Amino acid sequence: MSQALDAEPGSELFASYEADFRLAYAEITQKIDQIPELAAEPRKASVRAAERAIDEADEIVGQMTIELQNISSGSRAKLNARLRGYRSDLDKVKRELRRTSEQADRTELFGSRGAQAPGGISADDISHDQRQQLLSGTDRLESSSQRLRDSQRLANETENIGAGILTDLRGQREQIVNSRNVLMQADTHVDKSIRTLRGMARRMVTNRLITIGIVVLLIIIIVAVLLGRFLPRRR
């Protein structure tokens, strides 16, 4: 672990956080060292305790980061270097806890390497097929999960495409409905125009007939007048 130096002037609170961090770090390493020697339930309890200590150490590092901003720039550089060391130490024990816990779980599942079964057959030989089946099952599960994810992705893409098509169809339907309404209005206007034209045509024919009748009547009157004037009157 990074070695903490004496606290700089004006950094007593930072030094207090360092002391708390060292205590949490010591507890973490102690729990990690115990994990390989413990059975299932005690080992899980030790792992949980180590995780809680890591969370506490993480919080302490965060408090040190905040406190560092309140320290004069002359002392900040050295303290910042120490803080980086604490972060590095914490990352290492996180990885070590994960590695140790996984190794202990594998040991419990498959048995200690080289252990002997009755008849002089090693436990590795007995469990080899089981391990292979487990690995094969894991591969199949991962493959199935990947296919499921691909199917889900394809379904989502298809759904998005379908939604886009439906949106386009709704837009086209609205356009068709609007066009039909426009055509119906146009038909109405055309019908009105045709009726108007027919009325005008009838009035024109009527007016023409009236005009012709008037002309004929005038001609008859003129002829009658001429005949009355030029023909000899009977006595």
UniProtKB/TrEMBL annotation:
Domain T-SNARE coiled-coil homology: from-to ranges: 133-200
One GO cellular component term: cytosol
Coiled coil: none
Cell membrane recorded as keyword: no
One GO MF term attached to the UniProt entry: SNARE binding
Region (Disordered): 99-126
Protein name as annotated: Vesicle transport v-SNARE protein N-terminus-domain-containing protein
Topology class, membrane: Single-pass type IV membrane protein
Protein localization: Golgi apparatus membrane; Prevacuolar compartment membrane
Matches recorded under Pfam families: V-SNARE (PF05008), V-SNARE_C (PF12352)
Family indicated by similarity: Belongs to the VTI1 family.
GO biological process annotation, one example: macroautophagy
Keywords in alphabetical order: Coiled coil, Membrane, Protein transport, Transmembrane, Transmembrane helix, Transport
PANTHER family reported in the protein's UniProt record: VESICLE TRANSPORT THROUGH INTERACTION WITH T-SNARES HOMOLOG 1A, VESICLE TRANSPORT V-SNARE PROTEIN VTI1-RELATED
Bias kind Basic and acidic residues: ranges: 99-108
Superkingdom, taxonomy of origin: Eukaryota
Transmembrane segments: 209-231
Primary location class: Golgi
